[in-house]
């Protein structure tokens, strides 16, 4: 997933993947303390790729005009991040959110 080759179709795919990753992590919150350390680690180990995807999506948004569907998906992802970033950090996720995700809406 190179940023110079990140297309509109890539955005569509990866924004949905990021939403799914965030939704899955949020769903685990209620049962998180019931997991042993190994189970928790297995959920946490792939999270850095979600951070990379979020950064690449943010870069794409800064440089491109989004379609209406892309705007809706981007808004959904931003809402998940805003509402659950602290929860995920408390669970042990190493959440890295670009400032632009917290900033202005996409044009």
Distance between the termini: 23 Å
Structural class: mainly alpha
- Based on Cα principal axes, name the global outline: elongated
* Count of DSSP H/I helices: 5
Major sheet: size, sense and barrel closure?
none
Q: What is the number of strand segments? A: 0
Please mark out the parts with pLDDT under 50 across 5 or more consecutive residues, or reply none.
Answer: none
Proportion of residues in helical segments: 55-70%
| Gyration radius, in Å | 14 Å
**Overall pLDDT level:** 90
**Strand content range:** under 5%
| SSE run | HHHHH
Overview of this structure, please?
- This protein is mostly helical and 107 residues long.
- The mean pLDDT is 90.
- The chain is elongated and about 45 Å long.
- The two termini are 23 Å apart.
- It contains five helices and no strands.
- Helix 1 crosses helix 3 (47-63) and helix 1 packs parallel to helix 4.
- The chain has helices at residues 8-28, 37-44, 47-63, 68-91, 99-102.
- The longest helix has 24 residues, at 68-91.
For this entry, give a set of tags.
0% strand; 69% helix; 107 residues; mainly alpha; single chain; 5 helices
Topology diagram in text:
Elements: H1 8-28, H2 37-44, H3 47-63, H4 68-91, H5 99-102
Helix pairs in contact: 1-3, 1-4
